[in-house]
Design brief:
disordered N terminus; single chain; alpha/beta
Length: about 220
Amino acid sequence: MADDDRPEGISRRKLLIGGGVTLGAAGAGAYAAWDALTRQWWRVPGNHKPRRTGVVDFRGAEWVAAAEANWRRANRPDDYRIDRVVIHVVEGTYPVALKVFQDPRHGAATHYVVRKDGHIAQLIRELDVAYHAGNRAWNDRSVGIEHEGFVSRPQDFTPDMYRASARLTARICTRYDIPIDRKHIVGHIEVPGADHTDPGPHWDWKRYMRLVRAAAR
């Protein structure tokens, strides 16, 4: 399902424009427009972060680029703080997940996909916003990790998958100083407004969180 990535509400930041007039005094519409403009930093020449084809954020991951329609360029965590990891389950196979996320008509993709044998593909850089959570604010602040398999089949969640995913999540949490707890590492079903049920009742959260904490140490 295509993600709702419409602009958020007005920011609370107090920015000044010429003459020392606050944007709030110019009206909500002008403020929202200005706030949106400040988030387009990457369109200004010279403001691009270095981006090399094939570079990954997690060592050992395979780079498989998602369609550009399924994410948007950003400068995280400088423009959006990253404080969540969202766990997904594909409801399909690893090849199917990659194929879907490379389809611009799909309108959604995660940063990573974890295969049953523990192999990891990265499709979107962590500094960019993936359309994966079904919630604009959560997209801005989170990293999405997809897992091969079906929510109704506990056998799909293999030891290799759990271990690899836990190492990945631990690295993300360490990099952005995200607390390793169930408030900050959540399932797709827990995202406000989400209409998905993954990772489902067979995802072993106690086991997974134990592995994440061990990997972080």
